[in-house]
């Protein structure tokens, strides 16, 4: 049960991180070599690596929670 809670916390942290970066891209639009939107913001503000890391953390948390809930007996 502790591992499932850890997976849920990882997922929550990753999702919150992604939501914050997405909200920042909406409130602070950026044009990076005619690339606009979320990708333009991430490239222009140099936060693309942070966004990818947040996606990886959220995916790892989902996998841990899924494994603990359904696969592990």
What does this structure look like?
This protein has one domain (2-71). It has 73 residues and is mainly α. The chain is elongated. Helix 1 (2-27) runs antiparallel to helix 3 (48-71). The protein is built from 3 helices and no strands. The model has no long low-confidence stretch (mean pLDDT 93). The protein starts with a helix and ends with a helix.
What does the secondary structure layout of this molecule look like, with pairings?
Layout: H1 2-27, H2 37-44, H3 48-71
Count of DSSP-assigned helices:
3
Proportion of residues in helical segments: over 70%
Provide the succession of SSEs.
Answer: HHH
| Proportion of residues in β-strands | under 5%
Largest beta sheet, briefly?
none
Radius of gyration: 15 Å
Q: Low-confidence stretches at least 5 residues in length (pLDDT < 50)?
A: none
Number of strands: 0
Name the structural class.
mainly alpha
Quote the average pLDDT: 93
Global geometry: elongated
User: In the residues, how many domains can be counted?
Assistant: 1
Terminal CA distance reads: 12 Å
């Amino acid at each position: 049960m502790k591992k499932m809670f850890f997976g849920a916390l990882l997922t929550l942290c990753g999702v919150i991180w992604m939501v914050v970066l997405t909200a920042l891209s909406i409130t602070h639009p950026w044009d990076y070599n005619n690339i606009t939107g979320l990708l333009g913001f991430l490239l222009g503000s140099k936060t693309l690596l942070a966004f990818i890391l947040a996606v990886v953390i959220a995916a790892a948390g989902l996998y841990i929670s899924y494994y603990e809930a359904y696969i592990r007996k």
